[in-house]
Design goal:
Elements: H1 9-20, H2 25-32, H3 37-48
Helix pairs in contact: 1-2, 1-3
Protein name: Helix-turn-helix domain-containing protein
Pfam families: HTH_28
InterPro entries: Homeodomain-like_sf, InsJ-like_HTH
């Protein structure tokens, strides 16, 4: 079974900011030590749909 990783809100916000400024998912994953690019996609989806409160949720 895969272990679930919970990222701090600051990390999620930073990832979103980096993505908006054109940084690639791969670069974001390396810099912020994020394991899965799907994670970044999910945060971006929440950001774009105005569901930023969901960034506060644990896994």
């Amino acid at each position: 079974m895969a272990t679930r990783v919970s990222y701090p809100v600051e990390t999620k916000r930073k990832a979103i900011e980096m993505r908006l400024s054109g940084v690639t998912k791969k670069q974001i994953m390396q810099e912020l030590n994020i394991k899965n690019k799907t994670q970044i996609k999910q945060w971006m989806r929440w950001y774009r749909s105005g569901d930023v409160h969901r960034l506060q949720q644990p896994v």
